[in-house]
């Protein structure tokens, strides 16, 4: 039996966690919420077992800091994400040390803290992958313990982790598929079909996930239909350009050199017949291959395959432990420097706009100016009308507006195709007869308000509101005052 070591007695590992937490906290404090983050912040004000877009745990992540402090700021929105990444790091460390040794576990921590998607995306910003990553790793840890101890009782932890992963993001079905492949085709795992603990774990997973099933059943299965039909239904049309683009964005999220090493590490146990790590391969390749090949038919979002790379990090850490220390240190040191420079550039661009680029293509402007807009709306006295509601024509803009107003007035989205969760949170009957403020920005058509002329008695253009960034062009907001919503807006689902 391997000597059991703890991260709490490993000073270098604790230093990695501490420095990483500090850097992520600074980024969380300085960078305004992106479109998705602000939208998930609205989730926290509408607790439910399901949402149009996702299962419920992202609401817990987004709401944790607010519920704890009663204050809604950039850092409280992201407090849950910051803390969850620490726990994910601990589980990764423990998993690697069980399979390999302490040095490999330290390398794994450094990998997790120098891969942009995991360190910044999963580690600092609010996304469903905050909890998915945690419970994905916990599921893998349970299987490592099961194999190491030859004790099927660990299936109870597997079931718990699976249920919570499903409540995080539906990508967790790949955990079910991966375990199914092991039980069907790996002779060392087929014997567990006879174990009652396997079925006990399955029951636990089902019971944990059941509230989301019931929520969907009472809402026309809307979340499942939406998520599993993403990408369109126009049939399969293979495209080499889309395939290459899908691979390219994965490499960008991971860093190209890590991308190549992670793929090689995911192949090595098969090539070398490393029996103690072969069982990890389904959890690497299922999400990576499925979404990569989907990317040959339609555009995919870069983060879809990312859970598979968590298991690959475990394998890469074990492989890098066999390298000459000078080589592995060089890789990790260069990657740490690169992500430090990258993060510094993002911070400077966000705060100062150091690069003069097409503002419509500058993602750092997505969350820019909304707080100033909220102050402007209040200063102009528009909020004096207690029955006033505000709306935009895009769900992600309504998320930013709602976050900026911090609940001072109801915010919704009037969009006949994609109102997302706002169609469930707002009651159309309660909006009738009320005045509204319509908000959009220069990044969208200036005549967007024309489409609402049939629904209000009168629509009046208000003065534009312009926000500079460091004395340079920033963002212009367009506003319209809409008098008396006289006709229900035709949402495609929700509270019509």
TrEMBL record:
<feature type="transmembrane region" description="Helical">
    <location>
        <begin position="114"/>
        <end position="141"/>
    </location>
</feature>
<keyword id="KW-1003">Cell membrane</keyword>
<protein>
    <submittedName>
        <fullName>Phospholipid carrier-dependent glycosyltransferase</fullName>
    </submittedName>
</protein>
<keyword id="KW-0328">Glycosyltransferase</keyword>
<keyword id="KW-0808">Transferase</keyword>
<feature type="domain" description="Glycosyltransferase RgtA/B/C/D-like">
    <location>
        <begin position="53"/>
        <end position="215"/>
    </location>
</feature>
<feature type="transmembrane region" description="Helical">
    <location>
        <begin position="197"/>
        <end position="215"/>
    </location>
</feature>
<dbReference type="GO" id="GO:0009103">
    <property type="term" value="P:lipopolysaccharide biosynthetic process"/>
</dbReference>
<dbReference type="InterPro" id="IPR050297">
    <property type="entry name" value="LipidA_mod_glycosyltrf_83"/>
</dbReference>
<dbReference type="GO" id="GO:0016763">
    <property type="term" value="F:pentosyltransferase activity"/>
</dbReference>
<feature type="transmembrane region" description="Helical">
    <location>
        <begin position="277"/>
        <end position="296"/>
    </location>
</feature>
<keyword id="KW-0472">Membrane</keyword>
<dbReference type="GO" id="GO:0005886">
    <property type="term" value="C:plasma membrane"/>
</dbReference>
<feature type="transmembrane region" description="Helical">
    <location>
        <begin position="71"/>
        <end position="93"/>
    </location>
</feature>
<feature type="transmembrane region" description="Helical">
    <location>
        <begin position="243"/>
        <end position="265"/>
    </location>
</feature>
<feature type="transmembrane region" description="Helical">
    <location>
        <begin position="302"/>
        <end position="319"/>
    </location>
</feature>
<keyword id="KW-1133">Transmembrane helix</keyword>
<feature type="transmembrane region" description="Helical">
    <location>
        <begin position="161"/>
        <end position="185"/>
    </location>
</feature>
<dbReference type="Pfam" id="PF13231">
    <property type="entry name" value="PMT_2"/>
</dbReference>
<feature type="transmembrane region" description="Helical">
    <location>
        <begin position="331"/>
        <end position="348"/>
    </location>
</feature>
<keyword id="KW-0812">Transmembrane</keyword>
<dbReference type="InterPro" id="IPR038731">
    <property type="entry name" value="RgtA/B/C-like"/>
</dbReference>
<feature type="transmembrane region" description="Helical">
    <location>
        <begin position="12"/>
        <end position="31"/>
    </location>
</feature>
């Amino acid at each position: 039996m391997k000597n059991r070591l703890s991260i709490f007695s490993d000073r270098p590992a604790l230093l990695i966690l501490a420095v990483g937490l500090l850097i992520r906290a600074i980024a969380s404090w300085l960078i305004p919420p992106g479109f998705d983050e602000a939208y998930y912040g609205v989730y926290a004000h509408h607790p439910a077992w399901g949402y149009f877009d996702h299962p419920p745990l992202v609401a817990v992540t987004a709401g944790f800091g607010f519920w704890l402090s009663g204050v809604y700021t950039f850092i409280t929105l992201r407090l849950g994400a910051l803390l969850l990444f620490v726990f994910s790091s601990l589980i990764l460390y423990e998993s690697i040390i069980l399979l390999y040794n302490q040095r490999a576990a330290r390398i794994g921590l450094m990998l997790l803290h120098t891969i942009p998607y995991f360190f910044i995306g999963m580690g600092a910003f609010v996304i469903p992958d905050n909890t998915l990553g945690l419970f994905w790793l916990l599921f893998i840890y349970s299987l490592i313990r099961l194999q190491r101890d030859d004790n099927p009782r660990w299936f109870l932890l597997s079931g718990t982790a699976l249920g919570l992963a499903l409540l995080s993001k539906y990508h967790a079905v790949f955990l079910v598929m991966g375990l199914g492949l092991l039980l069907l085709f790996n002779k060392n795992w087929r014997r567990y079909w006879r174990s009652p603990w396997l079925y006990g774990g399955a029951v636990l997973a089902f019971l944990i996930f059941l509230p989301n099933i019931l929520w969907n059943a009472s809402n026309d299965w809307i979340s499942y239909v939406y998520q599993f039909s993403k990408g369109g239904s126009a049939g399969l049309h293979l495209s080499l350009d889309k395939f290459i683009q899908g691979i390219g964005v994965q490499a960008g999220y991971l860093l190209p050199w890590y991308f190549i090493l992670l793929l090689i590490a995911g192949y090595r146990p098969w090539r070398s017949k490393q029996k103690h790590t072969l069982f990890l391969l389904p959890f690497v390749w299922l999400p990576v291959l499925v979404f990569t090949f989907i990317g040959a038919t339609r555009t995919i979002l870069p983060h879809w395959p990312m859970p598979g790379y968590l298991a690959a990090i475990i394998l890469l850490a074990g492989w890098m432990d066999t390298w000459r220390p000078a080589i592995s240190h060089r890789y990790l040191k260069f990657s740490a420097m690169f992500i430090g420079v990258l993060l510094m550039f993002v911070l400077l661009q966000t705060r100062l706009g150091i690069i003069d680029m097409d503002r419509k293509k500058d993602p750092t402007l997505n969350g820019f100016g909304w707080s100033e807009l909220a102050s402007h709306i209040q200063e102009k006295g528009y909020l004096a009308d207690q029955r006033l509601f505000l709306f935009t024509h895009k769900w992600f803009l309504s998320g930013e507006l709602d976050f900026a107003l911090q609940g001072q007035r109801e915010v919704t989205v009037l969009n006949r195709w994609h109102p997302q969760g706002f169609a469930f949170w707002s009651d159309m009957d309660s909006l009738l007869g009320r005045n509204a403020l319509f908000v959009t920005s220069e990044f969208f058509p200036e005549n967007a308000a024309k489409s609402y002329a049939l629904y209000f008695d009168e629509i009046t253009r208000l003065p534009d509101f312009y926000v500079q960034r460091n004395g340079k062009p920033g963002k212009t907001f367009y506003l319209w005052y809409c008098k008396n919503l006289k006709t229900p807006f035709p949402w495609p689902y929700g509270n019509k």
